[in-house]
Amino acid sequence: MGKLITNAGPATPRGAMASDGARSRPPSRSSPPASSPLPWPGRGRGWGLDMAAKGKPLQVGDTFACYTILAVLSDAPKSNYRRYLAKAECCGREIERNELVFKKAQKAGATRCHRCAQRAANPAKRADYAIGEQFGPVRILGRGESFRMWRVVWECCGKESELAQHYLSVLRVREAQGRTAVCLPCSIQRSRLLPQDRPPRPSRSKAALAASRGLGAPIRQPRTLIKPLVTPIAAELPTGIVSAAIAWPRPGRVQCGT
Q: Bigger pLDDT: 179 or 109?
């Protein structure tokens, strides 16, 4: 019988190895081909690093919706971790945001920043304070140096200070509940006084009840302490009254065996 001839190429002698030291295998998807100049987009651990960056970083002066890039704060391969300093054209405020916020604003066609958009959407809920307005024990003099800070004067001592905007509403609520607040120096000074020397203040329970009925908060009257009668030993007492210092046995004491 004749031998079966296949188109398998030249035969390799038994026991001989290939020239590269290993058997030839088809290229896998986890390793790049030798002739490919680009990184292989496979599942290998070290081959996907160059493909992590999505898009070019933003440049100083670029405009996205209502934001203008002023500076690059942190650069990273991924766009989600890049942070920039931008200026909002609607109010002129400088903010720090990542690249994703600017791209979303440009995609949505935003013309105002988030804070200005909220103020325009809720004009009735916006807190608007006027100079001279009273908030409990303080009166507004003007805006402070920082954002949402107000210069006020305290009625307790006439001292001027800066308070946060949300604390003014807290003072107004406490005044309605009958809990009049004072500044820190006056609070420390009052804590050092004796109970009978402290100024009267409204009762909390009565003030809450009066506020629910639309009435004014009643003032708690101070208690009048009864001072003990102190007399010297040689003092002349009325008939029938003996001084406790010289009385024996002491008044109210029960003698044993009697």
A: 109
